[in-house]
C-alpha cells in the first residue's frame, strides 16, 4: 500500500531507502518480501483512499 503523503511510497520503500535493517528484519516485512518475490502479491497495490 502506498501513502500519498510520503511521495506515494510504502513503508517497505521507506525502510529500504533509509536502510532500517531493524524494521526490515521483522517477520512481517520478511513475509511481505517473500510473497512479492514469489508472485503471491503484487509489488504495487492500488492506492487506498483516506
If you had to describe this structure to a student in words, what would you say it looks like?
The protein has 50 residues and is mainly α. It has one domain. The protein has three helices and no strands. The longest helix is centred in the middle third of the chain and has 11 residues, at 27-37.
Key descriptive features of the protein:
50 residues
Domain count, please report it.
1
Which residues form runs of ≥5 with pLDDT under 50?
Answer: none
Strand content: under 5%
Task: Name the helicity range.
Answer: 40-55%
The gross shape turns out to be flat
For the secondary structure, the number of strands is: 0
Assign the structural class, choosing from mainly alpha, mainly beta, alpha/beta, alpha+beta, or little secondary structure.
mainly alpha
Distance between the termini: 12 Å
Largest sheet: none
Number of helical segments with 4 or more residues: 3
Brief digest:
With 50 residues, the chain is mainly alpha-helical.
Any chance you could write out the topology, listing elements then pairs?
Elements: H1 11-17, H2 21-24, H3 27-37
